[in-house]
Amino acid sequence: MTQTKLHAPLVITGHTNADFDALAAMVAASKLYPGAVLVFPGSQERTLRNFFIQSAVYLFNFKNPKDIDPVSVQTLVLVDSRQRSRFPHVKAVLDRRDAGEAVDIHIYDHHPDAMDPDDDLSFSTGHVEAMGATTTIICRILQDRGISLNQDEATLLGLGIYEDTGSFTFPSTTPEDLEIAAWLKRQGMDLSVVGELLQRELTVEQVKVLGTLLESAVTHEINGVPVVMAEVSLESYLGDFAILAHKLLDMENIRVLFALGRMQDRVHVVARSRTPDVDVGLICSSLGGGGHAYAASATVKDKTIVQVKDELFALLFSHINPHILAMRIMSKPPVTVEATQPINDAVEIMTRYGFKALPVAAPGTLMCEGVLDHSTADKAQSHGLGHIPVSEYMQRDCAVVTPHADLYPVMEIIVGQRQRLAPVVEDGEMVGVITRTDLINTLIEEPARIPEMLLPEKSRERNVSALFHDQLPRPVLALLEDAGRLGDELGVPVYAVGGFVRDLLLKSPTLDLDLVVEGDGQAFARAFAARHQGRVREHSKFKTAVVVLPHFTINANQPPREQKVDVATARLEYYEYPAALPTVELSSIKMDLYRRDFTINALAVELNPASFGRLVDFFGSQRDIKDRVIRVLHSLSFVEDPTRMLRAVRFSQRYDFRIGKQTLRLIKNALQLNLLDRLSGHRIFNELKLILNEEEFLQDLEMMQDLGILKAIHPKLEMTPHRKALLEELDKILTWYGLLYQSPTPRRWLLCLLAMAATWKEEELLALTVRLGLSKKEERELVTLRRSVHKAMDLLKRWCAGDKSLSELYGIMHQTPLEGALLLMAKFDDDCIKKHLSLYLTTLRGIQLQMSGEHLMDMGLPPGPIYTRILDSIRAAKLDGRASTLAAELALAEILVRQYWDAQQQPGS
C-alpha cells in the first residue's frame, strides 16, 4: 500500500550532516514561522544523532524528507547554509524554483560566500551575517519580536550556540553570541544539559585514532604561517571525527589544523583556524565542503589522501600568497609555433631554446590553439612525419590562465591536468607562458608546498589489497601473494598489470593473470612454474613467458582447470617506422606501462609483500576509469600501432566508455595517413576477430563505420542499409540462441564475417581473405560455409513449396554447419521457414534413435555403409512421426533389413 505524501506548503530544513547549530536554528526558525513542517536532513555526529532520536523527534515533531510532497512546498526556509550542494534532500523543490515555479526561498546563515558563486542560492527573505552561530542570528530576531521560549527550546538553542563557538573559545565568537546566551539563560536554558551533551568521552577506537593523528601530525611553514597536517586511514566509517580534531587542536596548541581521515572511498577533512591569515571555510569550499573562516569541513570522494593533501597545499599556498599572480612568474613574450607549420619547425624551435613544449598559435595571430610536447614532436619526426602540420599532434583544448590569476589555477593546470605549460591569455591572445620550471622555481623555497605530483618519478598511490581480498577467489589471491614472495626471494619487484587491474577496479575481475617483473621475467617464470608444478612456454624475442598450471583448483566444488599466468620482463618498445612490429629493450615498470595502448590499461599493482596491493598509476588511469573515457597515452599511439584504433572501439563498447576527443581526432588522423594499409592483414584480422566475437559486435561495427575504419580495412566492408539490417537480425538470433545454452557455441567471427560478405561473389570473398591474411584453414572454412548456406537456401525454398516434412528439413540442415543455420534464420523473412529452423536448432538436431547398430547386428546384417542408410531412414520416419517408439523403430528396421537381403538376391547384385 502506497503511503500518502505530507502536504507541506511551508518547510524549514538545514544542511545535510547537520550539527547542533543546524538543528537549533531549525527549531528557532519554527518560532518565526508558525505551522511550518520541520524536516531533519540527517547527521553523522553520533551524539547529535542520539540526542535527536531520543528527544528532538518527540519534542519538535520533525519529519523525514521522504515523507514530504515536494510539489506542495510553496515556501522553503533554509538555515545554517545557503549552498545548493548541501541541500540534496530538497533538490526537487529547488528544481521547481529553477523551472520558474512560484517557490519562495528564505535563508538564515552565518557562513561566508561559497567559492563557487553559482552554488549560493538566491533568496527573497532572510538574514546572513558573520556570527559564531546561525542560531544567534535567529535568536536576535526572536528577542526583538518579544517571542518567548520554554526551557526545552532555550536549552536546545543554547546547545547550538555553545557547540559552534567552542563554548565561546573560537575566534569566530562575537559579542552577540554571548549576549544571546545570556538571553537564553533568562529564558530557562539548562546549562547542565548543555554541558552533558557537549561532554564527549572518547571511545577506545577514537583514542587509538587520535594517537595516530598525533603521530602523523607534521607542521609546514607556508609564508610564515604554521599549518599542521594530520592523517589517518580507516577501513570503516568513524563517527565524531571532528571531535578528534578539536582534541588535537587543544592538546598541541595548534594555530591551523587540517585533519584528514580516509574512510572507505572518502577522505573526510576537518579544518580549524585560530588566525585570520587562513580562512578554512574558503579552503574547504574549494574541496566541495563548507564552513566559516575558523571551522570548516569537506568530504572528498574517489581521491587518495595524497591527492587531497596536494590540493590542500596548492589552495593554502594560493590563498596565503594572493600577491603572487601569473603575470609575475610568466615568461614573456611567448615563443610559439603556428598550427599550420610543420612539426620539423617546432622541433627546431624547441631544440634551439631548450623547451619541453610549445604553445601553438592560430596562423598570423597569438590566439592559443593547443600545446605540442617535445617528446611527441621527436617521435613524429622519427616516423617520417616531420612534414605533417603541428595541429595534427598537438594537445587541443588546453587550459589557459589570465595575467591576474593566482597560483592555484596555474598549479591545477600543470599539476592536476599534467599540461606541460600554462599559456597566459589576455584579450584573446597569449601574452606569456608559465612552464613547469617557472612554477617549481616559485615554490622551491618551501618544498612542502610542492604537490607530490610535480616531483619526478612519483606516481599516485593507492592500496587496493582490499579489492584483491573482496573480489578474487582465495586460490588466485594466494597465487599472486606467492608471486610477490618469489619476487622478494629473487630480488625483483613483481607487478600485476594491464586488463587484470582495470577489471579489478571496474569490479568485474578476470582470472587472466598478467605479471611484469623488473628483472629477468623468463627466469622468474621458470622458478614460479617449478614451485607450482607447472610448465613454461618462453618467447625470447619479446622476453616473455607463459606459465601453465594444468591442475589449478579455484573452487572445491569444481574440477581442476588449466590456469595460465603471462609473465613479461618490464620492457620498453619502440617502433622503427609506422605500423612496424615493436623492438624490445629492458626498462622499468613506468616505461613498461607507457608502451601500452590506453591509460585504462596502464595500471600496475605491486605484489611484493612489503607493498602488496600498492596501485601504480603514472598516467591518470584511475581518473579515466572513473570518467569512463578511452584515452591514448601519447599523440603518436595510432601511428606506432594502428590496430589500437580497433581496440579503442572494442573497449569503448565493452565497458560503455566514450572515446576521448583528442583520441578520436588522432584516430581520424591515422586514417587520413592510410596507416591501416601498412599493416599486415593478419594483424588487422586478429583485432577484427576479437571485435566480431564480442557480444556487442554490432555496436562495434557501427562505430567503426562512423569513424571510417571499416572502409579503411576494405572498401566493400562499409555498412550498407541491407548489411546493417542483416547484422541487426543476426544479433537478435545470436542472443536468442545464447539463451538456449546449447552446445556447440557458434564461431561468431566466422558467422559475422560471412554475414558482412553475404551478397559478394566468391572471388570477392577470396580477395577479402587475402587482405585479412586468413590462414588456409580459415579461408576454407569461410568459403565452405558460404557454399553450404547458398545450397541450403535453395533447398529450403523448394522444401517450403513442397510437403514440408520434418525429415527432409533435417536432411537439408544436417549438412549445414551451426553458423550456417543461424545465418539462414537471419536471412529468411518467411516466418514459416524461421519457425522450422528454430525447431531444427532447438529440437530436431538433438533427436536420437532408441535403437542402435547393435540391433542391426543382432538381425544378422553385416557391418558396412548400409548401417548408416538404414539408421538415417529410421530417423526420418521418427521425425515424421512414423516410428515414435523403440518397437516401431525395430519393426521398421526389420523391414529395411529384409529389403536389403531381397535386393542382394536380385540378379546382378
Automatic annotation (TrEMBL):
Q: Which GO terms describe its biological process?
A: tRNA processing
Domain (CBS) spans 330-390, 394-452
UniProt cross-references to InterPro entries, sorted A to Z: CBS_dom, CBS_dom_sf, DDH_dom, DHH_sf, DHHA1_dom, NT_sf, PolA_pol_head_dom, PolyA_RNA-bd
- Does the record's keyword annotation contain Cytoplasm? no
Keywords associated with the record: CBS domain, Magnesium, Metal-binding, Nucleotide-binding, Nucleotidyltransferase, RNA-binding, Transferase, tRNA processing, tRNA-binding
Entry keyword tRNA-binding: yes
- Its domain of life reads Bacteria
Q: Which GO MF term does the entry hold, naming one?
A: metal ion binding
The cross-references to SMART domains, in alphabetical order and at most eight, read: CBS
By its UniProt entry, which Pfam families does this protein fall under?
Answer: CBS, DHH, DHHA1, PolyA_pol, PolyA_pol_RNAbd
Cofactor section: Mg(2+)
Q: To which protein family does this belong?
A: Belongs to the tRNA nucleotidyltransferase/poly(A) polymerase family.
Supply the name of the protein: Putative polymerase family protein
Species, as recorded: Megalodesulfovibrio gigas (strain ATCC 19364 / DSM 1382 / NCIMB 9332 / VKM B-1759)
